[in-house]
Amino acid sequence: METLLDIDGIMEALPHRYPFLLLDRVIEWDRGKRLVAIKNVTMNEPFFQGHFPGNPVMPGVLILEAMAQAAAIMMKNDDVGDVVPLFMGIDKARFRRQVVPGDQLRLEVETLQARRNVCKGAGKAFVGDELAAEAELMAMLVPRDQM
Q: What amino acid positions are annotated as catalytic residues?
């Protein structure tokens, strides 16, 4: 797998930081259309302390957040300027498999619709070839200087 963006590039693209930055690298990127990112899930994640002691499972809402972060990077291109996508909605979210320490989450996102400052995308999270979660995400693109 070729790395197109490493953690430094991801931190340049997103305003998120530890412990809420949920991507480790980008391995495919067709700007504005499709992106594939990787999240290495380790026992060191702070959420595993309470979710759940003795049976660590990555919270589904954080899998969705990782998809949203991947989608935010996907939408970066010269046409939209320096923007930050803000969640507007999540539809059709389904969880198919638990994500546990040691798993590598592959996040695949693609654009379904893009209008001026609102976009809708589809996201899927895989562990190996097994679908772990999927959802449709809507976001409003807000210029970074207006945040």
A: 51
